[in-house]
Amino acid sequence: MVMEMEEGVKENGASTPKSRVTNQTRALLSMRLLQILLLFLVLTLGISVVGIHMIKFLKIQHLDPVAPTTVLSMYDHETVSLDSFIRPPSNVWHSMNDTELLWRASIEPQRNGYPFKRVPKLAFMFLAKGPLPFAPLWEKFFKGNEGLYSIYVHSLPNYKSDFSRSSVFYRRYIPSQAVAWGEMSMGEAERRLLANALLDISNEWFVLLSESCIPLRGFSFIYSYVSESKYSFMGAADEEGPDGRGRYRTEMEPEITLSQWRKGSQWFEINRKLAVEIVQDTTYYPKFKEFCRPPCYVDEHYFPTMLSMKHRLLLANRTLTWTDWSRGGAHPATFGKADITESFLKKLPGAKSCLYNDQQSQICYLFARKFAPSALEPLLQLAPKILELGSNISSTRHSWFLF
Description:
Its main location: membrane. The chain is an alpha/beta fold and 403 residues long. 40% of the residues lie in helices and 9% in strands.
């Protein structure tokens, strides 16, 4: 019995570790199962993510062949060509602000010559308050000379023109800003006109006119006179007195000194090189904007001073627009209906002689101002005959010089 009891004790003692092993095994199996489940979940999630990316990738790969086909199709149809760069805008209206416009207009080819047949044009830029009272006279002037000119009109922002489609002024009004006489806004308007005209790469010469200006010669004569000139027509005089040097401000130094200060007529004709110089200027513009205020008038000093400093030898130092200042005052004489007679028109230019290509000439003015709207009717009757609006180059060019 003692032995049996001892054996029973031994069996009980031996069974305790075995139970522990069984419990540990079960716990281990549960842990393994949990790890397998977790691994399965991770693999499932990973496969899902990879699947999503593969779907996106396959979609992109499927679309890739289409893009080159579209681009090639664009070029096959000559969407991008030299013609798209040199073709003038079909409409002068645009959404650019002044900063964007001046930047765009300052971009110029740097190579000499043109890889296409370029017919240089004369850009007529009208600085007006609104309507153009002498539009019928200008219509006669431009008729038959298509392809040799461009027209740009700057008016008050709220003015809406009503020209018909057949008019040369149809849709030629550019985006504009308000202008105050004698202030920097006047110079800004002139730069705005030049910048818009520069967008047409065929424009080679630029004439600034007002709504009260009229032509004194036919188109062919004026085109030849301007195109054959070695100089641009802008006055740049070193004038003494209160209306000249007296308008200078020492605050403009060091960019502009008193000895560099110049005065000239607002109404000019310049070539493309000088037009680009004006629109790309960021050196002299701030000085004039801040310090040139009445009795300093921007339109009489800004361009003459700047261009004479950099390109004095390119200027004829005179204007092509005749104006009568004989009556004195801040504004020139205005001529109405009663003034327009045959004798008046014959002696209208009023100059004895001037220099043209360094030779004495009897033809000094091509335009005249200042005319009231009432002068239109007699001008339409007399101008075609007296002012030779229908003349050609060959019949007039020989009378340019005094021999």
